[in-house]
Amino acid sequence: MPIKIAIVHDSLTVFGGAERVLLSLIKLFPQANIYTSLTSKNLSEMISTASRGQLFFSKLSQWQFALQHPSFFKPYFYHYYWSKLNLDQYDLVISSSHSFCANFVKVKNKHLSYIYTPPRFLYEQFNEMTWLRYPIIKSVLEPYFAYLRQKDKTNVQKIGMLIADSKNVQNRIKKYYGRDSQVIYPPVKVLTKITTLVEGKKTNYLFFSRLVKQKGIELVIKAFNENGKPLLIAGTSNQEKKWQKMAKANIKFLGFISDQKMPSIYAKSKALIYASISEDFGMVPVEAMSYGLPIIAYQDGGVKETVIDCKTGLFFTKHTVKSLNEAILKFEKMKFKKSDCVRQAKKFGPQIFEKKIKKTIQKLL
After folding, report:
1. CATH H superfamily, domain 194-347
2. DSSP conformation class of 133
3. Nearest to 121 by CA among 67, 169, 173, 71
4. How far apart are CA 70 and CA 210, in angstroms?
5. Could you say which DSSP state residue 97 is in?
6. Rounded to an integer, what distance in angstroms lies between the CA atom of residue 30 and that of residue 325?
7. CATH of region 5-187+349-364
8. How many other C-beta atoms lie within 10 A of the C-beta of residue 358?
9. Are 274 and 297 in contact (CB under 8 A)?
10. For the chain, what are the domain ranges?
11. What's this model's pTM, rounded to 2 decimal places?
C-alpha cells in the first residue's frame, strides 16, 4: 500500500529558487497533496499542472493586497494558519520552508523539513521588511517576536529530520535552533555538456535576480552608472520603476525572462554580477556557470560554496561601488575557462538532489 504524502510550501506568490525545489519534490512524489498559505492564480495553475495531487490554500489568496504584499502578513497570519493545519492523516510530510510552515504544522507521523533559512524577520538576518526596523515599531513588537522565536524553536525540536539548503543555512539552524541538519543542495537546472554551450558576442555584463535591495540591485546600478559599462538586468519586482529611474543609458532592463530565453541572454554576457546580501544558497550563479559564464560575486552567503575564486569567478569583499568596480577591472584582465565553470555547476544538478532526497527519506521511514 503506497504511503500518503503531503508537501507543505510557505507561499506561492513569486517564482524563485524555493519554487524550483517544490517542483522537484512534486516530480519525485507526483501523488502528494500540496499545502500552501497564499497562492496567485498563475502559480496555482502551474503547481496543479505539475502535480496529480490536490492543492490546498487559504482564503486570503482571494485578496489581491495579500498577494502583492505577502511579507506584511508574516508576523501575524502565517503561524496562525499553519498551527491550525492538522496533517496527522499523512504518513510523511515534507515541508519546504523559510517562514514558519515547517515548524508550526501539526504532524503525527514522519516529518522532513527542507529549510532555506530560519525566518529572516525573526532573527538577525537581512530582510526586506523595512517597516519593522523603525525603533518605535520594533520596541512595540519585540515581546511578541520573542514569543514567536520561542515557539519557533520549540516546534523545530519536534521535526524528525532537518535538511539545510547550504552549509551557510546549516550554521544558522545550529545557531538559532541548536540542532544538527544535513546539507542537500537545491536542484539547479544545469547544462551537462560543454558542447551545448550557446556561443555569441560577449558584449554585456548581466544581473539576473528579483529586483530587491537584498539581491544587490541598488549597488549594481550605482556601480554601472559610474563605470559606464553595458549591463543587462533580467528580472522584475514591484520596485522596478524605482530602479529604472536610477539607472543611466548603459543599463538595459529586460523584465521577466523565461527559462527558454535565458540561454540567448547568457550568450551575450561576459559575466554574471551577483551582489546578494546574506544569500541562503543562490541558484542563479550555478545556472550561469553551467553556460560557461564566470561570476563576479559579493563574498557572502551560499555563493562561497558554489563559486571558486579566480577559477569560476571573482569575489569582491566589500558591498561597495568601489569594491565591485575594482573586481570588474580585475576580471577584465583575466581569462576563465568555460569548462571549469561547467564542471563546477554539474555538482549541483537535479539528479544529485533527487538521489539524496530519496535516500534521506528512506532513512527517515
Report:
1. Glycogen Phosphorylase B; (3.40.50.2000)
2. G
3. 71
4. 15
5. E
6. 46
7. 3.40.50
8. 12
9. yes
10. 5-187+349-364, 194-347
11. 0.88
**Residue closest to 285 by CA, chosen among 334, 225, 216:** 216
Distances from the Cα of 38 to the Cαs of 27, 110, 122, 318, in angstroms?
A: 21, 25, 20, 36
Cell of 37: 498559505
Whether the Cβ atoms of residue 39 and residue 126 lie closer than 8 Å to each other = no
CA 280 to CA 277: how far, in whole Å? 9
- What is the strand order of the sheet 92-97 is part of? 55-56, 33-36, 5-9, 92-97, 110-115, 161-164, 182-183
Retrieve residue 127's grid coordinates. 530582510
Q: CA Rg, the chain, in Å?
A: 21
How high is the mean pLDDT in each 10-residue block of the chain (365 residues)?
90 87 95 92 90 89 75 73 90 90 88 93 65 65 85 92 95 95 92 54 89 92 97 90 94 91 91 94 94 96 95 97 97 94 93 94 89
Q: Which strands form 251-255's sheet, in the order they lie side by side? A: 251-255, 231-234, 204-208, 269-274, 295-298, 313-316
Kindly write down the DSSP assignment for every residue of 42-74, as one continuous string.
Answer: HHHHHHHHH-SS-EE--GGGG-HHHHH-GGGGI
5-187+349-364 and 194-347 have identical folds: yes
